[in-house]
Amino acid sequence: MTMTEQAYNVYEDRCPTRLVLDRLADKWALLILDRLRGGPLRFNHIRREIKGISQKVLSQTLRKQERDGLITRAIFPTVPVTVEYALTPLGRTLTETISALTHWAEQNMDAILAAQRAYDERDAG
């Protein structure tokens, strides 16, 4: 079996898909990819839109996503230099799934909080 024919199994502990899942399961990665769904954005625009993300974490996450082929980085020779990030075709294949997941959390937060309270009350008693 050649490398391109290799079958991946996420349940195997050494499968490289686990690294991808680990990066995609990161809240910042999900929020960045979901925000880029609307089109290219500048670094500072992304940082302003995603409350609580530090410049360092944003930079690291964007770099990882670029390495994985999910986003592109375009540099424009302006003063100061302008950098825009956009989804690649591969990154766009995730938009529906990521949007569903991120907005599922918003839509179901009250039920989750109620379940947590009920669990904590049962566990305390």
From TrEMBL:
Query: Mind telling me which InterPro entries this protein's record contains?
Result: ArsR-like_HTH (IPR011991), HTH_HxlR (IPR002577), WH-like_DNA-bd_sf (IPR036388), WH_DNA-bd_sf (IPR036390)
User: Which superkingdom heads the taxonomic lineage of this protein's source?
Assistant: Bacteria
Ordered alphabetically, the record's keywords are: DNA-binding, Transcription, Transcription regulation
Entry's CDD domains? HTH_ARSR (cd00090)
Q: Which residues form the HTH hxlR-type domain?
A: 15-113
Q: Do you know which Pfam families this protein is assigned to?
A: HxlR
Single GO MF annotation:
DNA binding
DNA-binding as a keyword?
yes
GO biological process terms, alphabetically, are: regulation of DNA-templated transcription
Q: What is this protein called?
A: Putative transcriptional regulator protein
